[in-house]
Amino acid sequence: MRYVSTRGKAPVLNFEGAMLSGLARDGGLYLPETIPTLSGLNDLDGLPYDEVAFRVIRPFTGDSFSDAELRGAIDRAYARIEHAAKAPLRQLAPGHHLLELFHGPTLAFKDFAMQLIAQLFEIALKRSGRRITIVGATSGDTGSAAIEAFKGIDNVDVFIMFPHGRVSEVQRRQMTTPTAENVHALSVTGHFDDCQARLKDLFNDHAFRDAVGLAGVNSINWARIVAQIVYYVTACASLGMRPTDFTVPTGNFGDIFAGSVARAMGLPIRRLIVATNQNDILHRALTTGEYRMGTVEPSISPSMDIQVSSNFERALYLAYGGDAPAVSQLMDELRGGGFAISQGALQALREQYLSGRVSEEETLAMIRTIRAETGEILCPHSAVGVAVARRHIEPGVPMVTLATAHPAKFPDAVEAAIGLRPALPPHMARLFDLPERVTRVENDVEALKSLILDRRTQ
Ligand SMILES: Cc1ncc(COP(=O)(O)O)c(C=O)c1O
Ligand SMILES: N[C@@H](CCOP(=O)(O)O)C(=O)O
């Protein structure tokens, strides 16, 4: 399996190379040259999650990992997800199901991919003896999942940038309370897009990149996307492999893009619906054909307060028929504030994705409604998804909404909706008693570089 960059000017790599690179050297994102077909779809129902994960991920990894290495990594990763089904489906209403992705150690869907890639990084680094520096940008959940998954792993230093004052207190404490010396939480002035832009600046400085062995674990990393395909497969298997719709709370477009790869592998996914909060650039782009940046308004679903949606580049690459120069041109225009999608590409995108936007009031109302109707307490991101899904349910077609985080990660929003604060699970009971370790950093790439050079293990 060979991986190519969306911008067409980076070396073609195998799975391990693409995984350890994160962002391609030309600034683009890696994609496989072809998407493999998943055989035996009708034999998957009832199989353990780990077995389905092996069958889904194996075709992407090529000769990078032996079967035994991949199975071992999967077993160790998913042993940490505290639900027998790992990603259980819960019926909210006839025909509407919630795919619960928050039973991992940091209570968000990110654990599914992060736990696995930490295992794969460890195997690859042990084999090569290389040392790397992971830098990540987070609006709260990627960072906590990365710190949890990579803390204490040999040959890796981890630096996570989060926007100062714009993550929930639980998310911040998940990043600032671990004591492992190889992890560093950085509170950056600005918003998530600033963190993500600085991350790309670091990758695009090749001298720095090579000096520190820079690697990325955001969903710019193809290995993240691969691991996120698996739960679409288990959901379809549980629903009898019949045409099914999915609604996905969306920010960086990684989770929904994994759904489109699942469909390309042969899954009977009928519609993929992008659900955004008031930061609705993706909904506007799919509706109008114009991808134009405005200002980010902090919301009660902060993990989706994003304007530069990194994986949209992968979707554009496919919609433009693999025309890397066209994608590079759009990304240049994005630096000036936005771009217009060609008619042909817009039509191709609309064949792949529908979309909807949910206001703050609608999000709160949906948390209340679902609590009253079913007893389930949604996190605000999942509530955005459920609200959009309910506009699109059609008789006879199951709708699955991805529940991307546990409500206890966002107690203020939940309390504003239903007047109670959901309890953290027992393994996080001491979170508010632990001392925090965090460094304040300006939104400045040179300041970040010197901090990383200074703190990383030599
Ligand atoms: C809880 C939660 N829901 C939804 C999203 C959006 O997912 P994606 O960035 O893959 O679109 C995120 C952040 O990524 C998140 O943390
Ligand atoms: N919502 C995310 C933003 C980063 O997303 P990623 O999937 O690209 O890592 C977060 O919680 O950090």
UniProtKB/TrEMBL annotation:
Pfam families recorded: PALP, THR4_C, Thr_synth_N
Pathway: Amino-acid biosynthesis; L-threonine biosynthesis; L-threonine from L-aspartate: step 5/5
SUPFAM superfamilies attached to this UniProt entry: Tryptophan synthase beta subunit-like PLP-dependent enzymes (SSF53686)
Tryptophan synthase beta chain-like PALP domain boundaries: 99-328
Boundaries of every Threonine synthase N-terminal domain copy: 2-78
Keyword annotations from UniProtKB, A to Z: Amino-acid biosynthesis, Lyase, Pyridoxal phosphate, Threonine biosynthesis
Molecular function terms, GO-annotated: pyridoxal phosphate binding; threonine synthase activity
Known catalytic reactions: O-phospho-L-homoserine + H2O = L-threonine + phosphate
Cofactor: pyridoxal 5'-phosphate
Leading EC class: lyase
Record-listed E.C. numbers: 4.2.3.1
GO aspect biological process, one term: threonine biosynthetic process
Chain positions with N6-(pyridoxal phosphate)lysine modification: K110
Family stated for the protein in its record: Belongs to the threonine synthase family.
NCBIfam families named among the record's database cross-references: thrC
UniProt protein name: Threonine synthase
Organism in which the protein naturally occurs: Paracoccus sediminis
